[in-house]
Amino acid sequence: MMGIGKRYTDRKRDALHRDMKQNAHQLYCWDTDKLDHLYHTEQGWENLYQVQRPHVLEGIAREIEYCVQQHPNPEHLKIVIASDHGQMIGEAEHLSNCPEGLELKGRMAIGKTDDPRFVVLEAERYGLPHDLSIVRGAACLNAFSYTEKKEIIGSHGGLFPEEVVVGVSVLCPFTARLSVQVTCQGEGNSGQSGEITLAIDNSNTVPLTQLCLYINELNDLKTGYPLNIKVPAGQKVLVEVPIANYPELPPNHEGNQLAITGELKFQFADVEAGTASLDPQSLLIVKQLFSSGLDIDDFL
């Protein structure tokens, strides 16, 4: 449906940026080997994992963000992140005394063996160009990089899920959020403490966090009342909120129902700020004998 796009290597990033600005294609493929190169060259595993790995990933993320900004309509883009293979994490044992006649390739070898340390994938049965012998455990045959103790870093080619199951992430620059429904109701005696019930309906695919409720008609909630809860994705929760003093009904107010207004402020999964106004059906039922409309100061 999209047609043929264009592939860009790390050396062709200037061309990628230029084509993005000109909206030259429907599909752009940036093929980077930055992370792969890191696993094939670094020899200190702890430093690789704790320092180099996040540093390289953050750099790739900034590169993607810059590319998106070059496009005339970035909001229309979808960014697909994938890989050609997964990666074993950590140091691996070097498998010694390998059978003869095998061409070693990381955690697999081209050729066939009856060594019980291997499982054989036959070419005819599995549609492969060669018979392959795969190491049964987590050990490796050889690698691009070794530690000072001659342990292997960054080898792959086996059948562990970490190597053969590759996730695909589909992102877009602007996330569409569904509206959050918030309704507040309660019943109590004027001038006395009580509670109100807050109903929060979250239809989004991420939880709501860092919630704070504001209600204009209640003095102790005007400046905000933090809610120590998390609203899970796709769920509706009820929250009981304490009230120090139920309000009085205004003079000449008909009935005992008092409409209330306000908003709920929150974060989408601790990342993006959001707000939701109280539903117009939000109200309090206030019980009081009467309201004269007079103030004590009128008699002084």
Task: For the structure shown, list the relevant keywords.
single chain; alpha+beta; four-stranded antiparallel β-sheet; elongated; 300 residues; five-stranded mixed β-sheet; 5 helices
Question: How does this structure look, described?
Answer:
The protein is built from five helices and 20 strands. It has helices at 13-21, 34-41, 45-70, 123-126, 161-164; strands at residues 6-9, 28-31, 79-81, 91-92, 103-105, 108-110, 118-121, 132-135, 145-146, 152-153, 169-171, 180-189, 194-202, 208-215, 225-227, 236-243, 257-259, 262-268, 272-277, 283-287. It is elongated, with a radius of gyration of 32 Å. The mean pLDDT is 89.
SSE string, helices as H and strands as E: EHEHHEEEEEHEEEHEEEEEEEEEE
What is the mean pLDDT?
89
| Coarse structural class | alpha+beta
Give the strand tally. 20
Task: Determine the number of helices (DSSP H or I, runs of at least 4 residues).
Answer: 5
Main sheet strand line-up: 16-13-12-20-17
Portion in helices? 10-25%
**In one word, what is the shape?**
elongated
User: How far is it from the N-terminal to the C-terminal residue, by CA?
Assistant: 82 Å
Q: Characterize the biggest β-sheet.
A: 5 strands, mixed
Strand content: 25-35%
Sequence stretches where pLDDT stays below 50 over 5 or more residues:
none
Radius of gyration: 32 Å
